[in-house]
Amino acid sequence: MDASTYSAPETLRDGRAVTIRAIRASDKQAMLDAFHGLEAQTIYLRLFTAHGEPSEQTLREWTEVDFDKLVRLVVCLPRPGADEQIIGGASFAMLEPGNPAAGAEVSFTIEEDFQGQGLGGKLLAHLARIARARGIRHFVAEVLPENHPMLAVFERSGLPTTLQRGEGVVHVNMLLPG
Q1: 8 or 115, which is more confident?
Q2: How many CA atoms lie within 13 A of 15 on its CB side?
Q3: Which CATH number covers residue 151?
Q4: CA 127, CA 115: separation in Å to the nearest integer?
Q5: Rounded to whole angstroms, how far apart are CA atoms 157 and 13?
Q6: Structural domain of residue 22, as residue ranges?
Q7: Considering its fold, how many domains does the chain have in total?
């Protein structure tokens, strides 16, 4: 499976069609637009800190990925007469590049107007499909304790999941049975 060309149609709970696909280098402006559409609380829950304007270097890091050590998917909503709108995304980064047995860390961001539409679970399923094809058998994540929606996505995923509360963070471990 070539993650760099990954694309799959999905449907939001409200019936709108979206595409979950691999990020592209040409998505820089769409990613910047998506970032500007996020509320400060969403940015904090995702990055664990307040975050200013993304630099050109940050935009490159977000969009120019190798799809070997890092896989990044975005959720795109078609817009009539315009380019698609990025409304969310997720990624996994291998904990030890070249060693799938070590697992991968996952992260997610969903624009507030689209939270509660099932995107977190759909993104997790797509990432898991790609990871399994590479021999990755578990995901880890660190989530702020107040990020109840993301914790619920992990708990409802159907994947064997353990949560361990630490100082200011919840450590999540999810098995990806073959």
Answers
A1: 8
A2: 0
A3: 3.40.630.30
A4: 18
A5: 16
A6: 3-175
A7: 1
